[in-house]
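User: quick one, fold this
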Amino acid sequence: TEIYDNWEACAYADASGVYEITSDQGLEAGAAAYVSASLDTLPPTYYGSSGSTSDRASATEVMIERGAVVGGLNITLAVPTGISGTVSLADGGSGEIRVYACEGWIGEDDRNCEFTSIVAPGEDHFSIGGLIAGGTYQVKLLAVGYATVVINDVEISDGQLTALDPVTLTKLDPGSITGTVVDTSGAAIPGVDVNAQVEDVTVSTTTDQDGNYTFTDLPSGVWWNLAFSKTGYASASDGGMLNPGQTRALGTIHLARSASLGVQVQTTAQAPLSGAELRLCSGDNGDEGCVWGT
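Assistant:
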């Protein structure tokens, strides 16, 4: 049920397709609601007095009255043309699993792909609709830190969800990334913030007194992006592919000191003046190339 654009209560249909939503699922009386059904990650189909519809604007609002049971709200789901299946992470792992269904060769940009995602271990079933009937697809399943699985030559039938065999993604051996941060003279910089990121995974550390940093037990099989920052220095970035079980040495990062300008503002009586707004500009291009301070 959907009230005022907010999903309020939901329940699963049983093996016969029968559903019941009650106050136990959070349903509240006194409002008009839209009722919809959906299959996995596919768009919802709404109840309508003149028939089921995928357009909420054509759906029928149902008044939820206290103590009353509203029955006969039957919804017919149109079976999409596409694929469905189950996928899990080995050893009970957790994280986002992405599934791509692609026409032809799976390239790096995945521009010719339909996409969905689930989050393990709470979800394991996926569906992708909107595929071309009679087409042949490659299906790619991947998660950070796990070996990618590619299923070739999946044929799509009209009005059906082609069922794939269950897939379990195997965890890759983790790896490590090391490196050193110095200034332009080659002197080590301690206390530099180092952030490593891939997808929605971010880990952080700081450099030691010798300017060294180490990340251990990182998910492998992916490209890690590293960002380096410390007050008084210009930021820098680096990155690299981390293979299973690898200790990847990224080498030395040089941070240049950031430029600064100190100005004291005084009144005509030579008294310091706080809160004055300053503008520092390069060239004669108006506000372009200017920085501001107080």
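User: anything notable?
Assistant: The two ends are 53 Å apart (CA to CA).
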